[in-house]
Design brief:
Elements lengths: L1 H9 L5 H4 L7 H12 L29 H16 L1
Length: 84
């Protein structure tokens, strides 16, 4: 069984040609290509400092009281529905 595993192990080949440093582009080259594709010709700008937004103070809404006639109308409506 060890001989079979060793035979398989010896069939492996090196992947150095695919992972070598010369197979990859530098960050600068990739950034230039990205900028040309995205059509951004302006140079990189430092990030802007976030400005504080002004707090908007709003008055709390005034409570609204329901009138007695509205309650009576709703109650009579549901009573009629129950009778049907």
């Amino acid at each position: 069984d060890d001989d079979a595993l060793e035979a398989i192990w010896k069939k492996q080949y090196s992947l150095e040609e695919f992972t070598a440093a010369d197979q990859f582009k530098s960050y600068g080259d990739l950034e230039k290509r990205l900028n040309s594709v995205l059509n951004t010709s302006r140079p990189p700008v430092a990030a802007e400092v976030a400005t504080e937004e002004e707090e908007i103070v709003t008055a709390p809404p005034e409570p609204v009281t329901a009138s007695a006639s509205t309650d009576d109308d709703a109650l009579s409506y549901f009573q009629r529905l129950a009778e049907e």
